[in-house]
From TrEMBL:
Residues 9-218 form the Phosphoenolpyruvate carboxykinase GTP-utilising N-terminal domain. Pathway: Carbohydrate biosynthesis; gluconeogenesis. One of its GO terms (cellular component) is cytosol. Its cofactor is Mn(2+). One of its GO terms (biological process) is cellular response to glucose stimulus. NCBIfam families: PRK04210.1. This is Phosphoenolpyruvate carboxykinase [GTP]. Residues 222-586 form the Phosphoenolpyruvate carboxykinase C-terminal P-loop domain.
Length: 594
């Protein structure tokens, strides 16, 4: 246990509410891990996988109604509703504690309450934040042990009297009608009940490292973003670091672990992975932006991962990994749609049912064996491309920030903003077709500024203001770009092969940072000049390339309607600069004479 009085008092209080049979303070040791795994196996919460083929790996299935983040049950509980803003569900703190308190009440009867001390960011770094999560789920403890720095070193920090985020979690009865994910930024507290799904239950991740952290970051003058961080090393050994924000299931993990395409191999690039989901960034004494990945593991989408699309991820999940909602094969290994190897001729699907390929549902659609949002939880250190700078307390300097989303028609493959203020606007007008990572309508376009719509813990108008302010605090801010790997042709086929071929676009982006690549000015920003993207070894015909880089003023004028509607929700609170950029874009589009 810790000697930190505040921690002890809070645990006592939560014990009174949840009424567990016992409390276990986690030390993060290997013995503790082994014990929890054995208990989880005996209770049917985990299946031990084939230890020869997948050493240290386990299989888990969530409840069928609990397979993705539930944004409609996620709330920001601030005294003033306006502080949460129109982008968030809101509840008053009193209501929040009351409603969730009723569900938490006695929810841990017959169970152990695990108290796990964790650090987001390297323990002791000026970036880092400490949390304590109380939970009745062994799956959550074992997953948090992978996703965060957890155990003795953190207890030692707490013993010094360090402040911490209070994270209370219970799976309760896993009833979707009794599920709430509540954030109390003013109290540095998170209460999540009724779900065992990653994004709802691993409270260090989205709840602490984005929703609460974004709020703290605004007050403390730094940034908490839904971004991957990667390094691109040139043959001379110089590494440029890039941070990229794509909405959920839009390619962050894949890009963070990229392997150079064959066609560019002769150029000698090497990619270093720092993070695949979250970046904490601050301005250092040199006037540039530095970033750390607060996490210690990957909670990545399984479907689509194979040796061709993402060999580094394939290697990462070969040991010490927990798989959730994928197909369990008879030989106790796993499979998912778009995975390696032959399709297994039978297995148990994510719902726990017997499955074989080709099975159809009542509408005649193929039944997936793995849930489209099935995931793996794996330690960062497993990744062959992991950067040794992941542990550095200072982080890495960021050369370019990239925004991106899934847009079948509108956005070109890549464009560069004119300056920081315009770049903030480019982030603010981001939109993407929805995926399986959140419950909702798949494929529907929604506005998702900076990929933070579900994760910004306060009024997004103030968030845009904070971005503008951060730009002014830097003497050399990163250049800001937008990418779209998902543009399609007349037959709905992707025009761009994506994955490792994306390095060609990253090369253009980095060259732009050094004024080395050619670009053409369009109303929305700079797009690559013909032939300024190196296409060696990749066959894309001229027509497709033209389509990929096309900026259609009519389509953009149409898009402005949705953008202004979105901005209008914020009323007077939206920074003037954002409207200035809007008006300027409209003017540039109209000037094309369409
Ligand atoms: P979260 O973990 O939800 O935040 O997702 P993420 O942004 O890390 O997305 P991830 O890399 O897991 O990719 C999600 C899906 O996008 C997978 O199905 C991939 O196959 C697909 N994908 C990733 N990169 C590309 C790409 O360059 N082109 C295409 N067409 N699909 C891609
Ligand atoms: C996302 O949905 O953006 C994820 C997975 O990274 S979750 O942790 O569920 O939020
Ligand atoms: Mn994410």
């Amino acid at each position: 246990m810790t000697t930190n009085k505040q921690v002890l008092e809070w645990i006592e209080e939560m014990k009174g509410l949840c009424k567990p049979d016992s409390i276990h303070w986690c030390d993060g040791s290997i013995e503790e891990k082994g014990r929890l795994e054995q208990e989880a196996i005996s209770k049917g919460e985990l299946v031990e996988l084939n230890q020869e083929k997948l050493p240290g790996c386990f299989y888990h299935r969530t409840a069928i109604n609990d397979v993705a983040r539930t944004e409609h049950l996620t709330f920001i509980c601030t005294t003033n509703k306006d502080d949460a803003g129109p982008n968030n569900n809101w509840m008053s703190p009193e209501d929040g504690y009351k409603k969730a308190g009723e569900i938490f009440s006695g929810s841990m009867k017959g169970r152990t309450m695990y108290a796990l001390p964790f650090s987001m960011g390297p323990v002791g770094s000026p970036f880092s934040k400490i949390g304590v999560q109380l939970t009745d789920s062994r799956y959550v403890v074992l997953s948090m042990r992978i996703m965060t720095r957890m155990g003795k070193t953190v207890t030692a920090e707490l013993d010094k009297g360090t402040d911490f985020t209070r994270c209370l979690h219970s799976i309760a009865d896993l009833n979707a009608d009794r599920r709430l994910i509540l954030h109390f930024p003013q109290d540095n507290t998170i209460w999540s009940v009724g779900s065992g799904y990653g994004g709802n239950a691993l409270l260090g991740k989205k709840c602490l490292s984005l929703r609460l952290a974004s709020y703290l970051a605004k007050n403390e003058g730094w940034m908490a973003e839904h971004m991957l961080i990667m390094g691109v090393e040139r043959p001379n050994g110089f590494v440029d670091y890039i941070a990229a924000a794509f909405p959920s299931a839009c390619g962050k993990t894949n890009m963070a672990m990229l392997i150079p395409p064959n066609g560019l191999r002769h150029k000698g690039y090497r990619i270093w992975t720092i993070g695949d989901d979250i970046a904490w960034m601050r301005v250092d004494s040199d006037g540039t932006l530095w970033a750390v990945n607060p996490e210690n593991g990957y909670f990545g989408v399984a479907p689509g991962i194979n040796s061709k699309t993402n060999p580094n991820a394939v290697a990462t999940v070969k040991r010490g990994t927990i798989y959730t909602n994928v197909v369990l094969k008879p030989n106790k290994t796993v499979w998912w749609e778009g995975g390696d190897g032959p399709i297994p001729n039978k297995g148990i699907d994510w719902q726990g049912k017997q499955w074989k390929p080709g099975m159809l549902d009542t509408d005649g659609n193929y039944i997936n064996g793995a849930h489209p949002n099935s995931r793996f939880t794996a330690p960062v250190i497993n990744c062959p491309s992991i950067s040794h700078r992941i542990e550095q307390h200072h982080g890495v300097p960021i050369s370019a920030i990239i925004f991106g989303g899934r847009r079948a028609h509108l956005a070109p493959l890549v464009y560069e903003s004119f300056n920081w203020q315009h770049g903030v606007f480019v982030g603010a007008i981001m939109s993407s077709e929805m995926t399986a990572a959140q419950q909702g309508t798949m494929g529907k376009v929604r506005r998702d500024p900076m990929a933070m719509l579900p994760f910004c813990g306060y009024n997004m108008a103030d968030y845009f203001g904070h971005w503008l302010k951060m730009g002014k605090a830097m003497t050399k801010p990163p250049l800001i770009f937008n990418v779209n790997w998902f543009r399609t042709d007349e037959n709905n086929s992707f025009l761009w092969p994506g994955f490792r071929e994306n390095l060609r676009v990253l090369e253009w982006i980095i060259d732009r940072c050094y004024d080395k690549a050619e670009a053409v000015k369009t109303p929305i920003g700079f797009v690559p000049a013909t032939e300024s993207i190196d296409m060696t070894g990749l066959n894309i015909d001229a027509k497709a390339m033209k389509q990929l880089l096309d900026v259609n003023p009519n389509d953009w004028l149409d898009e402005l309607k949705g953008i202004s509607e979105f901005f209008c929700q914020f009323g007077d609170r939206l920074p003037e600069e954002i409207w200035d950029e809007y008006t300027a874009l409209e003017g540039r589009l109209q000037a094309t004479g369409v």
